[in-house]
Amino acid sequence: MSAWEPVIGLEIHVHLKTRTKMFCRCPVAYFEPPNTQTCPVCLAMPGSLPVPNRKAVEWTILLGLALGCEIAPRAIFHRKNYFYPDNPKGYQISQYDEPLCVNGKVLVPGADGDAEVGIVRAHLEEDAAKTVHVGGAEGRIHGAESSLVDFNRAGTPLVEIVTAPDLRSADEAKRFLQLLRQTVVELGISDAEMEKGSMRFDVNVSVREVGETEFRTRTELKNMNSFNFAAKGIEREITRQVGIYEAGGTVEQETLHFDPGNESAAPLRSKEEAQDYRYFPEPDLVPLQPDRELVGRLRGELPERPWERIRRLETEVGLTLAEGLVTSGRDELYSRIPGERDAVANVVMNELAATGIDPAAVHAEELGKVIAARAGIPRSAFAEALAASGSEGFSADRYLAEAAIADVGELDPVIDRILGQNQQQVEAYRGGKEGLLGFFVGQVMKETGGKANPKVVNERVREKLKA
Amino acid sequence: MAISRDEVLHVARLARLELGEDELERFAEQLNAILEAVGKVAELDLEGVEPTAHPLDLMNVWAEDEPRPCLSVDEALANAPDREGGSFRVPAA
Amino acid sequence: MIDTLRLTAEEAAGLLERGEVSPAELHRAYLDAAAERNDELNAYLCTVDDGAHGATSVPIAFKDIVSTKGVETTAGSKILAGYRPVFDATVAARCKDAGLALIGKTNMDEFAMGSSTENSAYGPTRNPWDPTRVPGGSSGGSTAAVAAGLAPWALGSDTGGSIKQPAALCGVVGLRPTYGAVSRYGIVAFASSLDQIGPVAKTVRDCARLYEIIAGRDPCDTTTVELPEPVAVPDAGDLKGLRIGVPTELNEAEGIEAGVREQVGHALDLARDLGAEIGECRLPRSVEYGLPCYYLIAPSEASSNLARYDGVRYGLRSTPNGDVRAMYDRTRHDGFGDEPKRRIMLGTYALSAGYYEAFYGQAQKVRTVIRDEHAAAFEQFDVLVSPTSPTVAFELGARTADPLAMYAADLLTIPSNLAGLPGLSIPCGLSNRLPVGLQLIGRQFSENLLFRAGHALERALEFDFVPERYR
Ligand SMILES: [Mg+2]
Ligand SMILES: [Zn+2]
Q1: Most buried of the four, A31, A348, C18, C229, by CB within 10 Å?
Q2: Cα angle, residue A351 at apex, residues A349 and A357 outer, rounded to 5°
Q3: Closest CA to A278 of C305, C32, B36, C169
Q4: Bridge pairing between strands A280-281 and A146-150
Q5: Taking 50 as the threshold, does the pLDDT of residue A130 lie above it?
Q6: A33 in contact with B at a CB cutoff of 8 Å?
């Protein structure tokens, strides 16, 4: 049996969070009543004309730069012609052979080196309307009696990012998507919230025998809107294709439509009917010629990329924690908190993350002190400290004050008094009832109002009872 | 025949146009005559000539990202052949 | 009693200024004229009785391709029957702001696809000079309305010659502005890289005044620009210093009637008398390849521009049993006439996989060649002249069976349109008692020069724009 190598490529659509749509000045708004955010342009009324959103163009260039792309000296919009009720003009204004950004590269840090993922292009286009299928099986692509169309989303600026088929595992694909999402969020150009549909992606999957240079037939997984969902889908598809080849069969080119609303629903398979989009230059728009100064300025403003930060943090806390910190957007907080790095990283990723406190609000210096003293602080006090770490005037002192009494000089008199008051039990213990140890320790803790360090108390009591 | 009957049907499908038998016949014939006439552009060797998509040499014409008032739902749906509440209704997509 | 047949817009403005008539009375006078002559001519698809509300100036007619808020706008198509826009086209808004009352919407070839106004879903318009003949097209409703005194002036649209050619056939003045001079926002689109809105009037001065109202950059149309110089209403009577080029191919193309050539020749003699220098020039490839180039570019863009008529948001919807695709197919089958169907299919074919480079791609390169040829001609000349139409008005039905014969009507107007240049057509005489049009072509944004030349010639020609049968 031969070894199989998955070949995975991604096509990601990300909504830009501009105030207005791509080609009209209707607000970009989610969850509004149907068709309350429309105008003649996004309803494709006769005679209406598109006017590009300058900010959307700038943000696409910014993203292109972050992904290491070349910014085209001249870019144009094309019309992509096809009929569907969510496509009001009968064509989508998109980019074809002269996109804004090309030839980028993203590094996905891995245990054994970086996986280099080519970015074929990043271009600007407009989103479609929302169609809700009613009367039949709810929200499924087939079986509906009629569809309701809401154009609020129509014309929302979309950046489409297309990768080369450079990904070699479901996990790698998932980690790439997390890095990409983190990148757009950090650039402040999209909230990339999958639940909102502001980030969606299609996955192309094929497999080939290791060593093979040609690609084999690929299938497309459409409408993915969750990383784990995508990873699962890819795994499933790889296994299916390998199964087919090993049974001597051939994989057919097809598209798997997933129902974003219902991850458990089985995907619908559909033969890829050869589409003919009849792309041609959009005659209602003039070319874009990105101003070189603007491009230079944007390049200068670029923050350190997520994958670069992961490699930097890896030396301190190891790859897994570093990746977790960066892709969860918590590495900035991590860096602000002084102290032993692993301890800090773990607290930030686990306990602190669980509190849901805004990382930016956390008083890092103070929290650092608490984390450093953790061993000596009662668990409850530590938890309180974390919970309060984001609030006004949070200070470590109050929690450090609760540091346990471990000082023998302070504990011995208390222990002696307890033993003196319970002679019978002392006798019983010495007679072999060692289970009574807990009783003495308990008494001491009670006396000290829980502030004594149980470990130390244990040792001292045992010793004194030996004598 | 520059364009076959099947091609006419294919084009009609792309253009989402239902064609009756008679129309199919008529259009196939007329399209052939027209295609023969317009095919004349192929006579010119225009290797290296830049295409003109636009009579004017404009670039970077856009608008600032500032919202403008929208239509009311009733204006949006004023001409709708069929609606349900605030949505356009169409046969199953 | 207002003689709408003779009254120019300028004279009408005079009556208003002197308080001799009110805007409402003026508006009413044109409605009365329409009531009297429109049954025969079918120039108006609808009239607006309460149009004078808030008017301060001379009323106007719009080709039905101009979106008018609350007033049915069909573009001559059944697929837009009953469609009432919820917004005004920029040109409509500018006319409103200038106080121009809307008299009505004029007939046109469906989606401006045609040269005779016979392709209207609402019946053909007839030529006021001879109702057995066509007014030309596609703006035949606007030119017929002005010629028959049903409007002092009007807006038309010109893609391949749809203002210039019907203006010629109806004996009125028509300007196809430089591409980018007038907003297309709210104009039902035919071919985006060619469509332009322009004035139709009885005189060049009226044309200039209306052009002044509608021209200039519109933030809603990214292909418009601010005019390089303000519009100058002409009054000079001479042509001193003007260099007029006579492109051989445009003036000797086969199919140009002798009577047409004669009247154009006469106009050139007058131009010489007025002080113009006249010389020959060449536009060989523009004329030979203009028509094929146009009939690839325009249908390709049209096939995409007409995709929005799908029965979803407005206009006709036919619902056979079945899914949304069946609805599209039937709606578009029932809603579009033959000419749009032909052009949609031609354009779809020209853009489809495997044919794009040979057709659309090649046509765009031919366009560059045509542009360059014209640029070269304008190095020696300020204005190029030719007949606007090879023939005078032809009889209804004469060309409807043969699309190519119909397409040939725009042979002389198409080349300069492809180059994005402005063109003015003025009546220059009669042939067989039918008007002949003279086409003046200028450099981009040289409308003022065209107005000046057109006005001087108009005065020298002394053409009587009132159709003989109405005198
Ligand atoms: Mg896309
Ligand atoms: Zn809008």
Answers
A1: A348
A2: 85
A3: C305
A4: unpaired
A5: yes
A6: yes
DSSP A111-132: TTEEEEEEEEEEEEEE---EEE
* Chain B residues touching residue C371 (CB < 8 angstroms): 52, 55
Residue A407: band (very low, low, confident or very high) from pLDDT cuts 50, 70, 90: confident
Q: Which of C160, C153, C42 is nearest to C103 (CA)?
A: C153
Write down the pLDDT at residue A140.
47
Contacts of C289 (CB under 8 A, 6+ apart): B40, B41, B43, B44, C366, C369, C370
Which tens digit of pLDDT belongs to each residue from A391-403? 888 988 888 776 6
Q: Each residue of C113-156: pLDDT tens digit?
A: 999 999 999 999 999 999 999 999 999 999 999 999 999 999 99
Pairing of strands A254-257, C243-247: unpaired
Distance from the alpha carbon of residue A26 to the mean position of ligand 2, in angstroms = 4
What is the number of alpha carbons within 13 Å of residue A129 lying toward its C-beta?
Answer: 32
DSSP alpha helix (H) spans, A328-406:
331-336, 341-347, 353-355, 364-372, 379-388, 397-400
Q: Note whether C73 contacts A40, CB cutoff 8 Å.
A: no
> In this structure, are residues C309 and C332 in contact, taking their beta carbons and an 8 Å threshold?
yes
Three-class DSSP category at C290 = helix
Q: What does the block give as tokens for A277?
A: 């989009």
Which amino acid is located at A448 in the chain? T
Give CA–CA dist A16/A157, Å, rounded. 6
CB-based contact, C324 to chain B, within 8 Å: yes
* DSSP output for C154-201: EEEEESSSTTHHHHHHHT-EEEEPPTTSB--TTBPPS-TTT-EEEEEE
Percent of chain C whose predicted confidence (pLDDT) is above 90: 97
**What does the longest C-alpha to C-alpha distance in chain B come to?**
58
Share of chain A above pLDDT 70, in %: 95
Interface test with C, best of B24, B38, B45 (most C CBs within 10 A): B38
- Look up C67 and say whether it is catalytic: no
Pairing of strands A254-257, A219-224: parallel
Strands of B87-91's sheet in order across:
A130-134, A146-150, B87-91, B83-84
**Residue of A41, A78, A83 best to disrupt the C interface, most CBs of C under 10 A:** A83
Identify from C84, C88, C111, C304 which residue to disrupt to test chain A contact, counting A C-beta atoms within 10 A and taking the largest count.
C304
| Residue A39 touches chain B, beta carbons under 8 Å | yes
Q: Are A118 and A163 in contact (CB under 8 A)?
A: yes
What the block records as the tokens of C224 is 């418009």
pLDDT of residue A210: 94
Residue A397: its pLDDT value, please? 83
Residue B70, chain C, CB below 8 Å: the answer is no
| Ranges under pLDDT 70 in chain C | none
Q: What is the mean pLDDT of chain A?
A: 91
Helices A408-421 + A423-430 axis angle, to 10 = 100
> Is C425 in the active site?
no
Confidence at residue A452, expressed as pLDDT on a 0 to 100 scale? 78
Distance CA C165, CA C177 (A): 14
Ramachandran category for residue A140: left, alpha or beta (phi over 0 → left; psi -120 to 50 → alpha): beta
Interface B–C counts its CB contacts (< 8 A) at: 172
CB atoms A284 and C192 under 8 Å: yes
The residue of chain B with its CA nearest to that of C344 is B15
Q: Is this model's pTM higher than 0.90 or not? A: yes
Q: Is B86 on the interface with C (CB under 8 A)?
A: no
Q: Which residues pair with A4 in a beta bridge?
A: A209
C87 to chain A: closest CA residue = A40
Using alpha carbons only, what angle is made at residue C287 by residues C284 and C292, rounded to the nearest 5 degrees? 125
Q: B9, B19 in Cβ contact below 8 A?
A: yes
